[in-house]
Amino acid sequence: xxxxxxxxxxxxxxxxxxxxxxxxxxxxxxxxxxxxxxxxxxxxxxxxxxxxxxxxxxxxxxxxxxxx
Length: 68
Hints:
Low-confidence stretches: none
Distance between the termini: 5 Å
Radius of gyration: 11 Å
Shape: globular
Order of helices and strands: EHHHHHE
Mean pLDDT: 95
CATH topology: 434 Repressor (Amino-terminal Domain)
Number of helices: 5
Number of strands: 2
Largest sheet: 2 strands, antiparallel
């Protein structure tokens, strides 16, 4: 099973830079980059909530389950 992170797609659709999102939600650009690349092992609900609020989206817009 794989969880695919589509954060870069949503950022492009909203025309928001990663740097700006990181500043808005209060995390480092490095941590946001790890999340965007799919290398993150976990995400806090508070971070997911902040991302969804900032991008006006649902968690399912950012995270997708893909069967291997």
